[in-house]
Amino acid sequence: MSQAIHQAREGINGCAHKEVRLREFLLPTIATLAAMLAAPGDAPAQPPTPRSVRIAMDTLHQLGGVPPGWMLSPPAGEVARGRKLYRRLGCYTCHAVGGESFPAPTGPGPELTGMGAHHPPGYFAEAVFNPNAVIVDGPGWVGPDGRSTMPSYPDVTLAELADLVAYVQSLTAGDAHHGHGGGHGEGAPPAGEAELPPPPATAATRFLLQTYDVQPGRLAEFEQWFARAGRAEILAQPGVLGIETWVDRSRPGPRLLTVISFADEAAFVAFNASHAGTEIGGRFDSFIGPHGHEVFQQPPLYRVESLSAPPGSPSEPRPSGSGWYRTGTEPTAP
After folding, report:
1. Angle CA 208–213–216, to nearest 5
2. Radius of gyration of the chain (CA)
3. Which residues pair with 243 in a beta bridge?
4. What domains lie within the chain, and their CATH numbers?
């Protein structure tokens, strides 16, 4: 739902099988920081990272050495500079970006269109300075030695890394990249899709769908947190219009579906990039198991009043699309 560490962490090349090597994680990080310190002093100053946690050392140690929901948080970068760096490093030769004017890719690599809607900044940073931390099966993505075919970039400074991450993080529009469902809410329905009743009118234009199961024995605690603090904290974020959750017993796999509705793309991006959004998402994710995310421009789930008749309802039919679509605690009724 957020920038919290996913328990089933998705890879930059699709659905990941995580291979973490502590030595490989630490050494490139140290090398990157050293390069930044050794770089000329003319690099532009960067704003502070949006994520900041204040905690007592004893508490930190009791929690296992990291705060709850901890993740690597790169400094804030500049999208325009990151785009120039993306071109200069030749990233486009393996990774297409929809809507950009880069030359067509000639090497193996997943499309990055919509990538920013699926991964936190720290994930992108690790993918650049240590591509073997997460190795994903894909066409040409893994070499004969079992390591990622993506090259490393030891000469990239920390400031440049922050800019590059900012650019990739900005890629939230369009179809989802390989391995993530894009949803049929992204514009016109695919060719051959059956005609559907229209969704009811709503002020929201972005919908984040999350599918998951709650961790064993934690449902009551999850519901109590949501009732006591979670609901209010989510709805208090700028541009968040509502949150609804359904149970789906009609299929195997995760049975809970939660949809957060946003006023627009800017509100969706701001929520995912904010400290508050990170904290809320981390708390939410602490109750649930492996989960997936999809982003839609229309409601992914909605009631069709013209084809529904709840017990005790009047016999007179209502127009299609005039039914309920609840947004948080304030439903809109016909």
Report:
1. 145
2. 22
3. 260
4. 17-169 (1.10.760), 206-305 (3.30.70.100)
Nearest CA to 120 out of 6, 257, 25 is that of 6
Closest CA relative to residue 11, chosen from 98, 89, 115: 115
DSSP 25-55: HHHHHHHHHHHHHHS-TTSPP-PPPS-----
Q: CB of 143 within 8 A of CB of 149? A: yes
The pair phi, psi for residue 296, each rounded to 5°, is -125, 155
- Compute CA distances 162 → 38, 94, 212, 264, whole Å: 17, 20, 31, 25
The tokens for 146 are 């079992």
Burial class (CB in 10 A: 0-12, 13-18, 19+), 305: buried
Which tens digit of pLDDT belongs to each residue from 128-168? 888 877 777 777 888 888 888 888 787 888 888 889 888 98
What share of residues in the chain are helix, strand, coil (percent, to 5)? 30, 10, 60
pTM summary value = 0.45
Provide the residue count of the chain. 334
